[in-house]
Amino acid sequence: MAQSLAGPEIERLIQLLARVPGLGPRSARRATLHLMKKREELLAPLGEAMRIAAERIVTCETCGNLDTQSPCTLCHDQRRDESIIVVVESVADLWALERAGAIKARYHVLGGTLSPFDGIGPEDLSLPKLVDRIGGHVSGSTVREVILALNATVEGQTTAHYITDLLAPTGVKVTRLAHGVPVGGELDYLDEGTLSAALLSRTSL
Questions:
Q1: Can you give the pLDDT of all 205 residues of the chain as single tens digits?
Q2: Rounded Cα–Cα distance for residues 150 and 90 (Å)
């Protein structure tokens, strides 16, 4: 067994950083060393920022986003189109769509996708809350469209079909993101699945 090269506090920091997505033990060691060298500039402010985040960050009771208030900043934004709800798998997907700035709508974070193999069923996702947000469609709800912005995976497509059936009684329009050739993409470099999706999602000119 390899001998520890640092004290328990530093080893603990390395172990925690190694659990961050995109970092492994080696990257965590490099990050830790960098933080040690920049103790006043990085380590102390980072520690304080993480302490404050742990105390103040909450999950939005309306859409599932992460913020320091609930309802979150996006749900409070009156400039957004309340008639459209974009359904995403995770907060990371929500943030990605916001960075793109392609639509100013409301969001709903499912917290995952249906995956019987992993034991994730409808009761494990934020589906009842989604139905509640749209359920008043007939009695005055302004929601007229639900966009399913789910990943193009088997689980994502299964979830999309399930939600479509679930929302059918509400009469709300359900759409999904087009899948296919990316902007700037060359056909010769695309895989067969992407090309097939592009053909199936073709539109009129």
A1: 455 566 888 999 999 999 999 999 999 999 999 999 999 999 999 999 999 999 999 999 999 999 999 999 999 999 999 999 999 999 999 999 998 888 899 999 999 999 988 999 999 999 999 999 987 544 456 899 999 999 888 899 899 999 999 999 988 999 988 877 777 777 677 777 777 777 777 765 5
A2: 9
Whether the bond between 71 and the residue before it is cis, its omega within 30 degrees of 0, is yes
Q: What is the CATH number of domain 81-176?
A: 3.40.1360.10
Question: Tokens for 142?
Answer: 């302004």
pTM score, whole prediction = 0.81
Helix (H) or strand (E) holding 95: helix 91-100
